[in-house]
């Protein structure tokens, strides 16, 4: 137990050192990316997790952003029967480089779809290049749900990369907690929190963070038509439940023991999957 606590404190302190000279908004921009999946575009955030002394790089986004990359093939099983095999094409991850308030370039990388949950609208990607980023998101791990009125930031790519870049920052509040959305099943897997941070198509999958410290409390999932400030986020409690079920808890929570090696990373590809 003491070892887990020590590990958690080391990671938090390391993040504090990385973030020491930047504002909350700037930190969030540093971990925000654009996710391109065939013709679809969305937003995402960078997560760094240590495996046996090596940094692994992950992208969290919304499932509906990468859903178009899903392929279902029919293969012949050992007994001669037909079997459905699900695979995903790679997504493209783009991060804008901003210096002194101006975009000066961008990084582009491919990312493998590692795990998705269509009911919760969550997708976790693994970057093909692990050593390109030195700043990752820090997640809100408290059991206490941020109440209505809590100040928030959202960072993403409203309108897609060409219009919103990869790190447009807006602010708002938590306006309602525990909304059931029938589009995603309306069950215990489809509970969302309503927020007022302005966003547009292209913002889906973008981070939502506490305004005072930048800890991630959710990702944007969808909004009401005709307004830019009536949206829902996948709350961090659902993200952590997804992570637990797919075998990825160690990626989000530094107190969870990671795999001993790369070869032991084994995530379930689909939760609540389509047929």
TrEMBL record:
Q: Which Gene3D superfamilies match?
A: Trypsin-like serine proteases
Database matches in PANTHER family: PROTEASE DO-LIKE 10, MITOCHONDRIAL-RELATED, PTHR45980
The stretch of residues making up the signal peptide is: none
The record, for Pfam families, names: Trypsin_2 (PF13365)
What organism is recorded for this protein? viral metagenome
Q: What is this protein called?
A: Putative trypsin-like peptidase domain containing protein
Tell me a Gene Ontology molecular-function term this record carries: serine-type endopeptidase activity
Highest lineage ranks of the organism?
unclassified sequences, metagenomes, organismal metagenomes
Q: Which InterPro entries match?
A: Peptidase_S1_PA (IPR009003), Peptidase_S1_PA_chymotrypsin (IPR043504)
């Amino acid at each position: 137990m003491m070892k887990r606590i020590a590990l958690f404190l080391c990671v938090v302190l390391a993040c504090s050192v990385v973030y020491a000279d930047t504002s909350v908004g700037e930190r969030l921009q540093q971990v925000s990316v654009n996710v391109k999946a065939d013709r679809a575009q969305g937003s995402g955030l960078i997560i760094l997790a240590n495996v046996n002394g090596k940094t692994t790089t992950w992208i969290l986004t919304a499932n509906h952003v990468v859903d178009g990359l899903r392929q279902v093939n029919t293969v012949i099983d050992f007994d001669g029967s037909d079997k459905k095999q699900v695979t995903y094409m790679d997504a493209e991850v783009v991060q804008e480089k901003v210096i002194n308030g101006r975009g000066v370039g961008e990084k582009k990388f491919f990312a493998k779809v590692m795990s998705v949950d269509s009911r919760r609208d969550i997708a976790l990607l693994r970057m093909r290049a692990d050593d390109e980023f030195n700043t990752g998101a820090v997640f809100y791990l408290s059991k206490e749900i941020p109440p209505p009125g809590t100040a928030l930031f959202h960072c993403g790519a409203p309108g897609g990369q060409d219009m919103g870049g990869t790190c447009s920052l807006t602010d708002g509040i938590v306006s309602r907690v525990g909304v059931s959305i029938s589009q995603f099943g309306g069950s215990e897997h489809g509970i969302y929190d309503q927020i007022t941070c302005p966003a547009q198509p292209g913002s889906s999958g973008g981070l939502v963070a506490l305004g005072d410290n930048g800890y991630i409390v959710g990702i944007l999932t969808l909004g009401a038509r005709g307004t830019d400030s009536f949206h829902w986020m996948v709350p961090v409690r659902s993200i952590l439940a997804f992570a637990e079920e797919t075998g990825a808890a160690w990626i989000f929570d530094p107190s969870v023991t990671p795999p001993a090696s790369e070869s032991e990373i084994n995530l379930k590809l689909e939760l609540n999957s389509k047929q």
